[in-house]
Task: structure prediction
Amino acid sequence: MLDRTQAPAIRMDSPVALPESDRFLLGRQPVVGIGGAAQAITKMEWVFTAGKWCEEKKGAAHFTAKMLKEGTTQRDAQAIAHQLDYWGASLSAESTADYWTLTAYCLTRHFPDMIRLIRELLTEATFPEAELALKKHLMKQKLRVNLQKVGFQATRKLMGSLFGPDHYYGYRLQEADIDAITTADLHHFYQTHIAHQPVHLFISGQYPDDFPAVIASQWPELLDLPAPNLRPNTPLHMDYTPGDHYIPVPQAQQSALRMGKLMPHHTHPDYQPLKVLNTVLGGYFGSRLMSNIREDKGYTYGIYSVLHAYAQQAIFYISTEVGADHEAAARQEIHKEIEQLQRTPIPEDELTLVRHYLLGNIMGSIDGPMKAANTIKGLLLQGRDEQDFNDFIAMLRTVTPDQLQALAQQYWKQDSFIEVVAGPNQQA
Amino acid sequence: MQPISYEKYQLANGLTVLIHHDPLTPMAVVNTLYKVGARNEVSTRTGFAHLFEHLMFGGSQNAPHFDAALQEAGGNNNAFTNNDLTNYYDILPADNLETALWLESDRMHFLHINERSLDVQRKVVIEEFKENYLNQPYGQLWHQVRQLCYTQHPYRWPTIGLTPQHVAKATLSEVQAFYQQYYTPNNAILTIAGGVAPDQALPLVERYFGDIPTGPTPLPDWPTEPAQMGARHASFEDDVPLNMLIMAYPMADRTDKGYYEADLISDILSSGSSSRLYLKLVKEQQLFNELQAFISGNLDPGLFVIRGRLNEGVSYDDAQAAIQQELQRLQDDLVPRHELEKVKNKVESGYEYNTINLMNRAYALSYFENLGDANGLNTEKEHYLSVSAAALRDRAIQLFDARHLNLLEYRAKQPAYAG
Result:
């Protein structure tokens, strides 16, 4: 007879290890490959050490990425779009503050064709005027829609206040920035940082065994490039002014709250255990913030906290949208939850739960070639490797409540935060 | 494409069980689909199915903390409600599959329904309503479109509900009755996918679900939508930066061949940057800031929707005429062979992409089983690949009949951006 009152036994002792990957140099360009997927799809990520950090003008990295498919010396935008759609493939480029990445998915049988197209886009893009004018127009319209969202306004203010509104980690494009971008800016960024520049390649899913030979034959110049550098994974020494900011949005029904601060760099020994502490506070659905402010009080649909590492600086922030009449109460509860972590060690059963939750998450993050390649990419770009992955798991199994309490006391001092509210309430 | 393999069983109490074994993954997914959605709601309690989904996380008799118990087993979970169904999924290390089965079976029969949990979740859902529908630019869109297009069928409200008041008024006894009517083994499809073999998983399923009693068989008791006899026109003003135009036409139900044809027509119009609407109306004529054609994807007869944001200074008349011209082209000319091949290729590669993720595979099997046969996941693309250019033209003529148009002008209060 089944006894439902007894929870089934839980096993979390299976070893968790990164899968084997193919690692080699194509010329001097590092390649990481993880194959063996059941679906005949190839994923590629071509990662350049370029981004907002090396722009001469705000928006150059972003628009170079968004304009990449708008024309080459051989084909116009329509021909490129038609070719990709005909293959049922997808290709897009994105720029972050630190890196500029072309991501492509295609059926494995189209791999050689796809390499030819990628080579063309990454060496012969033309950035036509008319297409840029349209992209700028669309982006301005999108910005206007975003500016109506309390969350967008609050996040922009927080990041600008932490890093300075012009810093590559702090800025968000404004209309004037978008207006100022020209095709010459894009050509300059592209020629300096993308075309014939060193690159890291991550390839996953299913791919032909001879794919290095395929790339070498389609793209021989690639083999002559020097080795790529990573962004320096060393801290910037920055400062910011804690305090409150209020953005009035009179017609809004909810207030967006953002509370954040700079954190020790990801190479600092405290950074990895801080990930565990962040999870306890607001990093998962069962977190203290979610349990209290959503599940107990019903003030919000969601609240979470994030610890994020840029190459040169890490940040921590809490983010939520709450009913405007709950704004003050929600802020008070957030502070109470932080104080609680400073005052009392996390109970062992809660910490066990968080350890298991994070272990399950890590297992999920390496499940299948594409996810595993993504996890390895994240490690390598931070100058880490398999050993760091294993070290994190070891730390996760052994970190103590006392250690985490000490971290909460050291890094989450109440007067060290910038707090932003965007919403309808009048404040002095 | 390799077909997705699975075993199908039915327990004595009526629970349908699908098991998909993937020996390469150390994870397992438990997906539970209940055949109840917003179309089962009464018109004075809209939003109820979705509110109920929230209550399913409030704990059950033997497992008072659903999320915590799953997280402790290394898992996480979520759920969604749409007009037709409610779906719950758990993903966790395959070693701990039993924990998910214990939790899902306990809340299928022993859900702890109480005033406190109802009170909090009413508030949470009302905040969700504000965050996604009231405090969001164009957040009222679907409320407006549905009320225009449907006069009888419960698709006339979105899953969040017509108004927060309906959710605010939900009572404990209504919740109890809903649970007893719809949350039964015979109204559910349980799919287990991942690193667990059927001969391991099935005895566990029997153990945890086998003793749950069969419930009443819910019958479709909602009205069908009468055929639309004339074009409808509505206008709505909101605090948004740009005017939006929506043109919606009634279309076939999910299992009709007209469904696949309409889906391909929407791809020809707007899938990818080589699609007709993008090239002509966004890029070349620059009438729209963004423009999409898509189908609502419902089980009962749904909608073919064209939605676009007008660029500043563009009139509704010009915008509509330009779209009509593209719809007319589909009725006058056959889609060229190369273009038809393109959208069919995309359907094929789409199936490959969609089955990479274990959770997608588990949900897709449940979804197709709910349509009548889980194997539809492996065979459905044949319906798309066999469509001819002539069939698309005939479908376009039937679909875009002027008498079936529902046109909504979602107007910006201040036409010019004021800062």
The two ends of chain B are 52 Å apart (CA to CA). The mean pLDDT of chain B is 95.
